[in-house]
Amino acid sequence: MKVKHLNITENMTISEFITQLDESGVLGAGRIAHATNLLADSMKDPETKIFLSLAGPMVPGGLRKVVRDLVKNGYVDLIISSGANLTHDLVESFGGRHYAGLHEDDESLQDSGIGRIGDIYTKSEDFEVFEEEIHKIFAKINEKYNSISIQKFLYEIGLLIEDDESIIKTAASNNVPIFAPGLIDCMIGLQLWIYCQDHDFTISAVEDMAYLSDFVYNSKNVTACMLGGGLPKHYTLASNILTGGIDAGIQITLDRSEGGSLSGAPLEEAKSWAKAKKGSNLVTVVGDATVLFPLIVAGALDKIK
């Protein structure tokens, strides 16, 4: 079969563009089309639960509203996130922002109270506000609980946030559970450790497993959409070992496979661990998730409208 060359025309829709990628069927174009079609099919199927994992700077990188809208509109059923993305969601909820366009050297940035994530910048003054506000939230939750699971803890945070654009608040409002197995490895975790020095308050990762395992067992089909790799990707896949693995999966990553790391591993490798079922529909898209995921989501939404 000959490769069908792309024909970009004026006023073409995103769905028409994705169809052309699909018809070309090669390289990154074919993978993007595969991912888009898989996501659209999963969104349309009421018996499929969509697990979304977030690693890397997805919130600082501009995907906060994309994720929030997917949750609000019922297209995501469960989130597994790095603690950092949740921290950055709260930074914005408390009035902070993420910034672009600064070009000082890193030592000068430190002197100016600015942290850098690639070409994204944060201000220490925004984190000072975050620290003050998160301790108020800890205290309110601690009035109700001395011990709480990470998932329940994040749910309670969501109930106390007034920002309707927040992923955490929107998830709580729509009963979409958020799991963050590496919560201690972020500013939320650091401030939680500080708070716990003077308060009887325990966060339990083990308590998450009962809820998560029940969720997996009660899901007829699971499609995992994984942005980046790391712990969120592994937790997403490993949780589905209980039922023989995910039924379908999309991975968007810039990591390479040669080093044997999970982050760069092709999803097919998950079959050997029963983290993905035999015959499961899997696609790995190599590239920047902050660019590719919005494109895939836009194409999927256009297909199902």
TrEMBL record:
This is Putative deoxyhypusine synthase. GO terms for cellular component: cytoplasm. Pfam families: DS (PF01916). Its EC number is 2.5.1.46. Belongs to the deoxyhypusine synthase family. InterPro entries: Deoxyhypusine_synthase (IPR002773), Deoxyhypusine_synthase_sf (IPR036982), DHS-like_NAD/FAD-binding_dom (IPR029035). The lineage of its organism: Archaea, Methanobacteriati, Methanobacteriota, Methanomada group, Methanobacteria. One of its GO terms (molecular function) is deoxyhypusine synthase activity. Keywords: Transferase. It comes from the Archaea.
